[in-house]
Structure formats: C-alpha cells, structure tokens
C-alpha cells in the first residue's frame, strides 16, 4: 500500500509518498492561486491508498475530497522525530506563522507556542523585507552574520518595518547592516517564544525558513545553543502526515 502526506502551505505544497515504510517520492510545487487543484493533481498522479493533509490549507482537502487532516503541530512533531530522532524542540518558521514545539523523550507534544496573528517574523515578512532591500529571498539569507552593527528594527509589523527599512536606506545605512538588524529582530522574537516552552536539546529547525543560514546563526547566538537543520527540512510536516496516514 502507498500512503501520502500532503502539507498545503501558503507558498509551497509539499508531499511525501510512503510505501512499506520507505519514502518513495518527495514532491514540492508552488501553491499558486489554486491550492486545491494543485493538491488534487498530486493525489491524481500518485493515487495513494490513504492520504492525510496538514498545513495552512489542509481543510481544502477535508471539505472537497473527504481527506482526513492533522494539525501542523502534530505533523511536525512526528516528522521531526523521524528526521532527527534526538529532537526535543522544534522551531518552525513558515510562510504565515511561527511555531515552537516541545517534545518529550517519546516524541509526544508537551507544549507549544504559536504566532499566527500577523505576518511578523514569518517567511512572508522576510520576503517583503528582502524585496524592499533589492535582494532575492535566497540572497537575503546568505549575508555574512559577522557584520558589526548596533542597528535595531523598532517594529516587527510588516507595514511599519517596510517603511522603516526604506527610511534607513534613505539615511545611507548599508543593505547588509539593515539585513542583519531584521534577522536579529526575528531571532529575538524566536527566543521570546522559546522561553514560554522548555528549551531542550536537540533543537531542530524546520519549515520553509530553515534554509536561511543567517537566521539560523543568529538564533543560535540568541539561545546560546546549536540548532540542527535536517536535509529535508521542507518536508517535515508532509512526512509526519504520511507516517500518520500509514498508522490510521
């Protein structure tokens, strides 16, 4: 039998196809303006016996395809524990929200903290800031973290932060210095969220922003601990959903 876990995110749809407990396919496509159709295309192409959906748009498949769903918290807990068995804390910065998840030694969720009220500190926030500074999102996360700067971004609201960035550029402050300040602000926000749950190692960085090298380094500096980024960090939630599908 084949089992599909599908994570419908705001920017990308990720899917993992399992057969006999082995990953047969890692699938990633842009969500675009038709997340339901893109998701149904994946289901039609691979025709799994069982599917479980998670992510920002999981209810689209629940309403339109009678597909069972699980929360991102549960999916990421399962997926992260498989990718990094020693995982006890998950940092997930996605396109629309930030989540901190604390696990016990068996991988059960002990506690979690979530920011989903606005785009502050999320992948979308980073995309807007990168655009304001004339960077691609990939370039934005590769700026050297050793640039000395005491600059601080006073607002994490996307609208106000973008205006502040434009103002700083007009004052002649370098793009690199502003970039460091933006990432430091997000790292401090993550630290604040981590303090509300237990910060135990190993700490796993998952979600779309886990590929941002600069952000990872600055979070490590803030929390004074090392962070592990799995090779398949994009697929943490989809993998968790696929494993859950195999068990139900």
From TrEMBL:
InterPro entries registered for this protein in UniProt? ATPase_BadF, ATPase_NBD, CoA_E_activase_dom, Dehydratase_Activator_Redct
State the species of origin: Thermodesulfovibrio yellowstonii
Keyword annotations for this protein, in alphabetical order, are: Iron, Iron-sulfur, Metal-binding
Q: Does the keyword Iron-sulfur apply?
A: yes
Does RNA-binding appear among the keywords? no
What protein name applies here?
Activase
Which cofactors is this protein said to need?
[4Fe-4S] cluster
Q: Which residues form the ATPase BadF/BadG/BcrA/BcrD type domain?
A: 4-245
What superkingdom heads the lineage? Bacteria
């Amino acid at each position: 039998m084949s089992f599909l876990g599908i994570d419908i995110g705001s920017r990308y749809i990720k899917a993992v196809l399992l057969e006999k407990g082995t990953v047969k396919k890692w699938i990633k496509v842009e969500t675009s303006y038709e997340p339901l159709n893109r998701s149904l295309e994946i289901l039609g192409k691979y025709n799994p016996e069982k599917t479980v959906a998670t992510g920002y748009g999981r209810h689209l498949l629940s309403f339109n395809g009678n597909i069972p769903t699980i929360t991102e918290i549960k999916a990421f807990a399962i997926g992260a524990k498989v990718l990094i068995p020693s995982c006890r804390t998950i940092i997930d910065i996605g396109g629309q929200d930030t989540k901190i998840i604390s696990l016990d030694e068996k991988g059960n969720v002990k506690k979690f903290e979530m920011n989903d009220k606005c785009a502050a500190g999320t992948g979308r926030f980073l995309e807007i800031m990168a655009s304001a500074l004339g960077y691609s999102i990939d370039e934005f996360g590769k700026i050297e973290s050793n640039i000395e700067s005491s600059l601080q971004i006073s607002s994490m609201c996307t609208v106000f932060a973008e205006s502040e960035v434009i103002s700083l550029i007009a004052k002649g402050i370098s793009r690199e210095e502003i970039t460091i300040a933006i990432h430091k602000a997000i790292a401090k926000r993550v630290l604040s969220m981590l303090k509300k749950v237990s910060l135990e190692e190993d700490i796993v960085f998952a979600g779309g922003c886990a590929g941002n090298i600069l952000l990872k380094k600055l979070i490590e500096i803030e929390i004074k601990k090392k962070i592990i980024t799995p090779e398949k960090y994009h697929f943490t939630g989809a993998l968790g959903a696929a494993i859950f599908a195999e068990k139900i």
